[in-house]
Structures are given as structure tokens and as C-alpha cells.
Amino acid sequence: TSVNLVPAADVSPTPDDQAQCAKGGIPRMGDTPAQLKACLDLGLPMTAGAGARYILRDADGAPKGDAELDVQWEHWSAVSDYKVVVDGQVLGAIDLNESIIRHGMKDSFSIRAGGSYALMKTAMVRGGIAFDTKSVRDDWERADLDGAQRITFAAGGSYKLNSTKFDLGLGYVHEGSRSVGNGCNPSSAAQG
Q: What are the pLDDT digits (tens) for 23-35?
């Protein structure tokens, strides 16, 4: 992702032939501030999942209900750090260093179970529960990325009249409270 930034007075855009992020930084002209191009390199985790479903049938073989169980793994530790590159130079000669934003993430797992059951030909109930493990340790909890553990509950039902169907669903996610600490960098605290 590329964005435009307005730099401090002694920072100017990198010439297009030396740009690492994106060409098109606008140099300072009189009282007009320069604009720098910046890129954010981040990724989504690789995932793997498996699931099983059982269908309950009535005497005629028509589906009467079902139950499903799914598990998933997310490889957050491989995409934990974000890299920021700004095409800018200090005093027109010294390139700005890239920045690494660390998130201290770890792999996470989730399990989901749910099902439905027909009370009669015109009415059905549904329900489910899900549990997701946290993808960050407590000392790496942040406000910019949600890595908290959570439990999700859902329930619903439907009722069908001749040509009209009514559906109602409710859900609740319990995540608990989050604390981002006092602004101390956990990596420097761990080293000190």
C-alpha cells in the first residue's frame, strides 16, 4: 500500500530512479511542502482447516437436521512484523531507514461447532459456538491489532408460511477486557 506523507523541513523525496517504494514523490517548490511516498508491507496468515458434517434424515430420507465441527490453524507468527518504507532523503543525500513494526504474534487455533434441527416442516432452530485462541501474548497486547482470545455464541430459528419465511438470529462474542499497558515497548523491556 502506498501513501503520501508530508515530511519535516529537512526531508525531501527520493529521486524516482532511486525509489524503493513508489515513484512520484513531489519536491518542495517555494512554500509548497514536499510529499513522500510510503509503503506498508504486511501479510495475511497462511491457514489450514478441516471439518466434518453429519446430516440427520427422516424416514423419507429428507434432511431433518445437521451437526458440523470445524478446526482451523492460522500461521500469524510468519506475518507478525510490518515493514514501512518511506522514499525520502535527509538533506537530499541520506536515505531514510525502513522501519519494522513488531506485533509479537503467535500461531492461533479455532474450533467451531454448530447445527440445526427441524422441529416441523415449517420451523427450524439453529445454534453454534466457537472458540479462538489468542494470537499474542499478554505483554504484546496492542490497540492497533486484535489478537485476543474469544468465545462466540450464536442461535437462531426460522418459520415458513406459504410464501414468506421469517428468520431470527442472535450472536454474542465474549472477548474479555483488553489492556495495552503503559506504552512501554515490550521488546525493550524484555531485553533490559
A: 777 776 655 567 8
Q: Which residue has the cell 496468515?
A: 45
Please give the pLDDT value at position 4: 59
- Predicted TM-score (pTM) of this structure: 0.69
Which residues in 95-117 are b (16+ Cβ under 10 Å) and which e? ebeeeeeebbbbebebebebbbe
Per-residue pLDDT of 98-123, as tens digits, reads: 889 888 899 999 999 999 999 888 89
Q: Is 142 buried (19+), middle (13-18) or exposed (0-12) by CB count in 10 A? A: middle
Taking a C-beta distance cutoff of 8 angstroms, is the pair 184, 141 a contact?
no
Cβ burial of 11 (10 Å; 0-12, 13-18, 19+) is: buried
Q: Please, what's the largest Cα pairwise distance for the chain?
A: 84
Cell triple for residue 117?
A: 434441527
Query: Are the beta carbons of 147 and 105 closer than 8 angstroms?
Result: yes
101: left (phi over 0), alpha (psi -120 to 50) or beta: beta
Q: Rg of the chain over CA atoms, in angstroms?
A: 26
